[in-house]
Amino acid sequence: MPHLSQTKNMDNFLEALLRDHQRYLPIIEFLDAIILNTSELSWADCEQVGLALGEQNKSVFCAGIRTGMIKALGGDTNLNGNDKLQAILTFAQKLNEDSSSVTEMDIQAIRDAGWNDQTVEDVVGLVAVLKVYSILANGLGFKALPEAAFDEMGAATVQMKGYTPVFRSFMEKIQAA
Predict the structure, then answer these.
(1) What crossing angle do the helices spanning 60-72 and 117-140 adopt, rounded to 10°?
(2) What Rg, from alpha-carbon coordinates, does the chain have?
(3) Which domains does the chain show, CATH number per domain?
(4) I need a surface site. Which of 37, 84, 160, 170 has the fewest CB within 10 A?
(5) Residue 60 in contact with residue 92, Cβ under 8 Å?
(6) Interval 128-169: pLDDT, tens
(7) 131 phi-psi bin (left φ>0, alpha ψ -120 to 50, beta other)
């Protein structure tokens, strides 16, 4: 259950972001700027990173939405045998846990897996914005929704080609009401 008086009657983290949309829209735009403009990572790859970080950060809401997104993108949450993406996940989790511990050896491991330096920068930006989401969701007290709700959110986000268009459509509905 959400912790604050202004969000106590909300079931969905998205509602809390919409309540103060001027504050949170730039974060959503930043997420789209990273996910939709990565050098080598697919949108589904980015969501895989997001799922791993949501789980690492114990953010059930963030892990839930990432699972819905992976399904909507036709991906698989099982990464067995995908060593190339596993190198990204290992780096992302280390960065998420303690960004000051990243070394040149960590970067080289990504290069050795076949990724370029721009992808490293993409992952750094992705980890940063996803960490913000996990902190907001956990700190405000939002938990998971039913799986069907996450699946619906994922399908709408893919159909509208990003988080920002979905968020803006909800903003317009609120403003029209």
Answers:
(1) 130
(2) 16
(3) 31-176 (1.20.1290.10)
(4) 37
(5) no
(6) 999 999 999 999 999 888 999 999 999 999 999 999 999 999
(7) alpha
